[in-house]
Amino acid sequence: MPNELILPAVEVKQAPGRKLYCFAVDGKLVHRFAAISRVSRKEDGGLHGYQRPEVLSHIEGIRDYIESSSPMVPNAIVLAFDSRVRFKAASGVTTTPYSRPGVLIIPLGRDEQSDEQKPGFVVDGQQRIAAIRDATIRSFPICVTAFITNDVRQQTEQFLLVNSTKPLPKGLIYELLPRTDAQLPVQLHRRRLPALLLEQLNLDPNSPLKGMIHTATNPVGRIKDNSILKMLENSLNDGALHKFRKLGSKEADIESMLELLRNYWTAISRVFHPEWGLSTKQSRLMHGAGIVSMGFIMDTISEHIQSTRIPTDLQYEAELQSLRPMCRWTTGEWDFGNGQKRKWNELQNTSQDIDLLSKYLIAQYRSRVMHQEKTPHRTSRR
Amino acid sequence: MKFFLPDSQDLVDPSFDFERERRSTTRQRQHDDLYAHEVFSTPTIDGLLVSKGIVDGFGATGSRYTQSQRLRLLRHGAPRFFRLERAPNALKLMGDCGAFTYVHEEEPPYSVDEVLEFYENCRFDHGVSLDHVILEFNPGADIPGGKNIIDASIRARQKLTLERAKEFLRKHKAGRYSFEPLGVAQGWSPKSYASAVKSLQKMGYDYIAIGGMVPLKSREILMCLEEIQTVRNPATRLHLLGVTRTEHLREFARLGVASFDSTSPLRQAFKDDRDNYYTNGLKYTALRIPQIEGNSLLQRKILSGQIPQERARKMERACLEAMKLFEAGKHTVRQVVEVLLEYERLCDREQKKDHAGAYEKTLTDAPWRNCPCDVCKELKYHVIIFRGAERNRRRGFHNIWTFYQQLRNLGLEATNTRQETERPTHQWRSRANG
What we know:
Chain B: Residues 415-434 are annotated as: Disordered. The complex is a heterodimer. By secondary structure, chain A is of the alpha+beta class. The radius of gyration of chain A is 30 Å and the shape is elongated. Chain A has helices at residues 30-33, 56-66, 126-134, 152-162, 170-176, 186-203, 225-238, 254-271, 288-304, 313-321, 351-372, and strands at 4-15, 18-26, 34-35, 40-41, 47-48, 77-81, 86-89, 99-107, 120-124, 141-148, 213-214, 223-224, 333-335, 341-343. Helix content of chain B is 41%, strand content 10%. Chain B contains 16 helices and 12 strands. Chain B has an 8-stranded parallel barrel with strand order 1-2-3-4-5-6-7-8. In chain B, strands 9-10 form a two-stranded antiparallel sheet. In chain B, α10 crosses α16 (389-409). Classes of the chains: A alpha+beta, B alpha/beta. Chains A and B meet through β4, α2, α7, α9 and α11 of A and α3 of B.
């Protein structure tokens, strides 16, 4: 085992007295020369270190990705070295006033040396390094940006600076999802299919929702992307869209899903014509509570019309007509029975209110359907 | 005697990989997961008890269902939702209100009409009338002159429960509902229970659930059943809500108990300090190897820098590794116990519990190696590890299976089973509006 690593590197002068070193190293080796400086208080109350502990679930996600077929991690990790690490400039090669190539010489201790003896500290990228350390792969080279300092204060400053970025807005992430097919963390993975359907509904010229969903690139949309995503997720998990998914596989019959959605929401836009297309302030139908509840009605009606695989817009329309009289999307008050009344604009986008509204509409629909059904067919139970 | 398992959406994920501790990325909750009755090739239960309080959630007790799952249950009915056709034996469904979820309320939060509607939509075989639990128990009230020991608010609960039972039965008849109704008896002493049973029989009930017995000692339960025996019609069957006392089942049967429900075989797997793994004789203590991120005490110490995370992870891995080596015959009982206790001391510095003796017993007997149930055959030593939900719940399933075997070995066949009436299953039954 060599007692030092010699790596090709580029030295970059950024500002007076500030030098950075860019190089690549096998991620499996990083823990041999760089420690994590965990935050804690000493006996006397003094603060020590700055790093938080590893977040295991996050590491698992990265690890899964690294173990997938052709992973790429383009963002560099950031290390701070003490003065035991040296840069040796190469001679007779191209340089610029601010950068020159050479080698970085990192002393390596024995495999089991204690953290205090290591010349480096991880400022940014501890989860990535941990994921590479744990992954069942032989090696995984990563890019590193390093600076040399003996001062913990500088490390802490850099640590705070790299970690105080603002996370991406959720809406932008959802809009980008359909364009990807790599292995993503579970919670993103779960939203990929709904995001794909949303995009189609928002773009397709035949869609009743064309241009109506508010997204990062469509700020004039009247319906919040999250309302539509929730409605789609509910139906994909437990409702009318579920049968077009294949259990235990990523495949799904997207075309049939879109056809059903187009038919149903076209019927909604006709039956509730005056209330459709207004702002959420003017019409609660366009609001989270309205969209999600009417999604549950979509599941209820689809199940009831079992004659065809995908009901037509006219079939949906006929069923929705029976609900029109008791809906109060833009004015008046809902009467949920048991003395429960609610002004039209007091309906909130909360699970309690959605529950109340959905249950009421489903019960109304059922009682109407039961009145019409003279001779229901009977089958035995088991 | 029939055993009903109370549902609280206890499922296991068959895609879970115990070596890597990962799930399949394509897994769909509930659809791909398995209930206890889908895991075993032989019968484990006679039926499920589904509570309105668990399905809807109430107050601090959140629902175990998502909104869309709840609506699917009501649309499809419970037989399809719970995939009963995949059970090895014909299962019955019983509905109740889950009165423990609203025990601290003045009045039950549901109306009788709502409850009937819920039972009908779910297509249950049996429906328990709307009740209100009485937690007090004081046999002294039965002594002449002891009447005034019992607070008026407690008496009011019994009165309310009986009134609702009357309304429930009346509306059940008028609405021509197809499930079989059970009345509920609540009481605070043997005589008060007996008088409730007497009233319910008078109303016309011949299947009666006895409520509020969960906190009672076995001796007290028997006292009540003996007293009820003095008023019970020979044809009246009893159901004990939330009670398992294996050692008294024979006496229960003699006293007219036809069915009972209990979660304790399942819950003891991951709630009990000692009795986590059932066998036909002893109950064994499961070996605790908590997940670092799942153990809040340990997590706090790591976050505050008192314990190096690396060290905790090393120990956790060492424990899992030691179990693997033990199963392969390369580790002795002592070696494994040492590693387990070292990790346990790290997780719990105060060492309130000393598991050394219990662990030694578990490892020496290695009961999972002799268990013929489907879980133990598939999971092997993982079944005895007290860790995440996937292992713990499977151990619970094993307990249910073992308990059911014991129940059957007692030879307590259900008494006076009634003729099953065929019931319609079309979408929404048309009912005479009575």
